Predict the 3D structure of the following.
Amino acid sequence: EAGVTQFPSHSVIEKGQTVTLRCDPISGHDNLYWYRRVMGKEIKFLLHFVKESKQDESGMPNNRFLAERTGGTYSTLKVQPAELEDSGVYFCASSQALSGSYEQYFGPGTRLTVT
Amino acid sequence: AQSVAQPEDQVNVAEGNPLTVKCTYSVSGNPYLFWYVQYPNRGLQFLLKYITGDNLVKGSYGFEAEFNKSQTSFHLKKPSALVSDSALYFCAVRIGGSYIPTFGRGTSLIVHP
């Protein structure tokens, strides 16, 4: 079974530019999550999709961040325009059921550097 | 609100020695506790979890963790460390009614040959 994949693995952009991150969840997983880890800090929740719907986007930092999940399969996270403080590692995760002791399966992350 | 503390940024241990990576938590309710590991250039991998039952939980790669309710701790342990255990370890907590875990800052484990 293929795991969660993310693209690109690294991205270096200048302040003010736009970047789009992609996440492909495990096939059949309706739930998809985005997280971010700034260097040395906690991994913080950004948002949660159930199929194509945004279930919870309370962790999105501001309106420069836009997440989509068209068709309920892969998801994209766009940052426009990027700022220096957006640098960090962006993780995607997916899971099946929400009830009980479910686990989230994480991708390798995209390391974003804004210069 | 829920929170996790990993008090050590880095843990150093010699190969073959026992290791402990500390985690304490705070939740209003019964906790679901998790440990994840991140190897270089890899994603977070699930190691083990505590939901209910036996306080000692065994997981992947010979790791185990002990849930201590009175001390609100969930320390990760391994009897004999391997150099290949060197990685970044994250503790996480959520309550049963929440689907989003709260993570700690991570602890870098370095096992010396």
